[in-house]
Write a structure and sequence with these properties.
ATP Synthase, domain 1, mainly beta, globular, eight-stranded mixed sheet, single chain
Length: about 90
Amino acid sequence: MAKAATFTVQILSPLAVEWEGDVTSLHSENSEGPFSIMPDHARFMTLLKAVPVTLEPVTGEAVEFTIETGVLFFADNLAKVYKQELQEVTFPQ
């Protein structure tokens, strides 16, 4: 089986897909320290620290997202970054 050159990343919020595209690598940090994901990486799941998630797209320059609270799941050359957005709730008086 040929090794993949890219993988797909989705940045997902509760309201929308904020970014989706093919990349050659993803870099971020969790409680153990910095990490990188490349094509054909083993399955991986982690909580993200509030540091940038850096993506190296196939075309164009690096893209960065800072995710305050999030989870990253990688399997079968698809990385999904689930981010939580806190929304202000107003209760009737």
